[in-house]
Design brief:
It is a single chain. This protein is mainly beta. The chain has a single domain, classed as Exo-inulinase, domain 1 (Jelly Rolls), CATH 2.60.120.560. It is built from 2 helices and 20 strands. It has helices at residues 2-17, 27-33, and strands at 36-38, 42-43, 53-57, 61-62, 70-73, 76-79, 85-89, 96-108, 118-126, 138-145, 152-155, 163-168, 177-178, 184-188, 191-194, 222-229, 232-237, 240-249, 254-259, 262-276. The strands form 2 sheets. Strands 1, 2, 5, 6, 8, 12, 14, 16, 17, 18 and 20 form an 11-stranded antiparallel sheet that branches. β17 (232-237) and β18 (240-249) form a beta hairpin. The longest helix has 16 residues, at 2-17.
Length: 277
């Protein structure tokens, strides 16, 4: 009996001093843990114009923007939100560390005048412009929306060509899964995976703020960072890991930045290629 007690105490001591895995890792830790090395950074926005991008608008098509939904002023991309559409990179990209700095403006437009300010960065975009709802290429969306910045959306055709797998909590929220590291892995071909602390009382209303929101208030700059390597995606907001996806399909494509009814400013879009050691 004495020996059993001794073994129990040794086991208890071992587990008490063994560090638990920290899933809320920093971007630097993500790079280190995956043996990823950053290469030379490529500025996708030069602060002067939209060289390297083209516009696509629901009603206008490609490279036609008479109302200047997208324009560059004061070294920022000013997205009016007046019409649904996007700017899209001319090139495709894979295996990278992408940083986008944005802030919301005051103006909103129909049909989302009173709804939460909504936009997004769409990566691994493939296929035809406007294939999804007449607005965007099929892609994987890193959502930017008041209260929901950090959500993943599969903006695909519903087939297994577009998919993400995420660890999720047992319960759903508004019909959507919630990212939870260590949870059961779930694969979706359409719909969304909410970021880990999305407020359960979220409403699609302008100026919504959740109790645990990481996004800064309207008018303040936020940093979205997306580490995409092979078929993994790590989604950071203001330095915090808010969502993670595995077995992502596709894993290469163009990058889109949306106009979806809300005024938004972007001052930085930088892409750093990644390689494994």
């Amino acid at each position: 009996m004495k020996n059993n007690r001794l073994v129990f105490c040794l086991l208890l001591s071992f587990f008490s001093i063994t560090p638990k895995k920290n899933y809320a890792q920093t971007a630097a830790e993500t790079l280190k843990n995956n043996n990823l090395v950053r290469q030379q950074t490529v500025p996708l926005f030069n602060g002067k114009n939209l060289d390297g991008w083209y516009t696509y608008l629901n009603k206008q098509g490609r490279d036609k923007d008479p109302d200047q939904v997208f324009k560059v002023e004061k070294k920022q991309i000013h997205i009016s939100g007046y019409e649904y559409g996007c700017i899209t990179t001319n090139k495709e990209y894979e295996d990278y560390d992408l940083e986008v700095e944005f802030k919301w403006g005051d103006k909103t437009h129909a049909p989302r005048v009173t709804a939460a300010r909504d936009n997004g960065v769409l990566i691994h975009s493939q296929g035809k412009d406007g294939a999804f709802s007449g607005n965007w290429m099929y892609s994987i969306e890193c959502q930017i929306i008041e209260g929901g910045t950090g959500d993943f959306l599969v903006v695909g055709d519903g087939s297994d060509k577009f998919a993400i797998t995420c660890p999720v909590a047992p319960e759903k929220q508004g019909g959507a899964y919630i990212y939870k590291e260590g949870g059961e892995n779930v694969t979706i071909h359409q719909g969304r995976i909410n970021w880990f602390a999305r407020d359960p009382s979220w409403k699609d209303v302008k100026d919504f703020r959740g109790a645990k929101d990481i996004e800064k208030p309207v008018g303040k700059w936020n940093k979205v960072r997306v580490i995409a390597m092979d078929d993994d995606i790590y989604f950071y907001l203001n330095g915090v890991l808010v969502n993670r996806a595995m077995r992502v399909k596709p894993s290469v494509g163009r990058i889109q930045i949306q106009s979806e009814g809300a005024e938004m400013f972007v001052r930085k879009v930088e892409l750093t290629p990644l390689v494994k050691k």
